[in-house]
Amino acid sequence: MAVTVEDLSAGLARVCARAGLGALSLAPQRLTGGAVMESSRFSAGGSDYVLRRAPSLAFMEGRPYGHAVEAALIEAARAKSVTAPEVVAVLEEADGLGSGFVMRALPGTADPKVILGCDDPDGLLRGIARDLARIHRLRQADVPDGVPVMDYRAAIAD
Hints:
The chain has 158 residues and is of the alpha+beta class. It is built from 6 helices and 5 strands.
């Protein structure tokens, strides 16, 4: 679902009003990175946010789960102290933006040159390892319904 910046701004204004985020104060800027989803950064009510959305509704067909479940999974991971952005709204049909969600923006960059040149690479690696360990400690009861659960024995035997 290709949308213009004006359409995106209008849809985000509806999301922000519904979620109580305040008025849109900085128009959405498309972010680089991400293999298949679209991401845009914007500001509302004095805070920065990121919209993550599918390029079309057809793109979401046949996927193991949708954005509402993905957003709930992110929140479940946050509840177990995984470093992840807070999801503040899941898109609704009336927003006119398709499938996706809005989350608070975290500081940082996706630029590998900046990441590799950081002041504390060991600290960065420790943080990544800590979060990966926390993700792997999530149990089925910790994640929302709709997340497929792999039968590890069957997968290994396969």
